[in-house]
Amino acid sequence: MSAKPEPLTVADLRHRPTITVQEYAALVGVSKDTVYEAAARGELRVLRIGKRILLPTAPILVELEP
């Protein structure tokens, strides 16, 4: 069993165009199911590539930065 990776920081987001649902969940402190539900309701901007769901970091940075 591998150790859990460290959560992303705002600085990490500046260097990545997208993040996974799991990474976003860890960043904001909710479960991945909560993120999937919010995406299904249209509350989050997501990119769907096949079955994969990614979150663009630009809208997240706008929300997190003052």
Q: Please tally the helical runs, counting DSSP H or I stretches of 4 or more residues.
A: 4
How would you write the strand order of the largest sheet? 1-3-2
Distance from first to last alpha carbon: 38 Å
- Strand content is 15-25%
Unreliable segments (pLDDT under 50, ≥5 consecutive)?
none
CATH class value: Mainly Alpha
DSSP E strands, number: 3
Largest sheet composition: 3 strands, antiparallel
Describe the oligomeric state of these chains in a short phrase: single chain
CATH architectural arrangement: Orthogonal Bundle
Give me the Rg, rounded. Answer: 12 Å
- Which structural class should the secondary elements be placed in? alpha+beta
Spell out the helices and strands N to C.
HEHHEEH
Shape: globular
Helix content: 40-55%
Chain-averaged pLDDT: 90
Give the total of domains: 1
- Assign the CATH topology: Arc Repressor Mutant, subunit A
Q: Care to describe what's here?
A:
- By secondary structure, the chain is of the alpha+beta class.
- It has one domain: Arc Repressor Mutant, subunit A.
- The chain is 44% helix and 17% strand.
- The protein has four helices and three strands; from the N terminus they run αβααββα.
- Strands 1-3-2 form a three-stranded antiparallel beta sheet.
- A hairpin with a 2-residue loop joins β2 and β3 (52-56).
- The longest helix has 9 residues, at 32-40.
- The chain is globular, with a radius of gyration of 12 Å.
- The termini are far apart.
Task: Give a brief description.
This protein is of the alpha+beta class and 66 residues long. 44% of the residues lie in helices and 17% in strands.
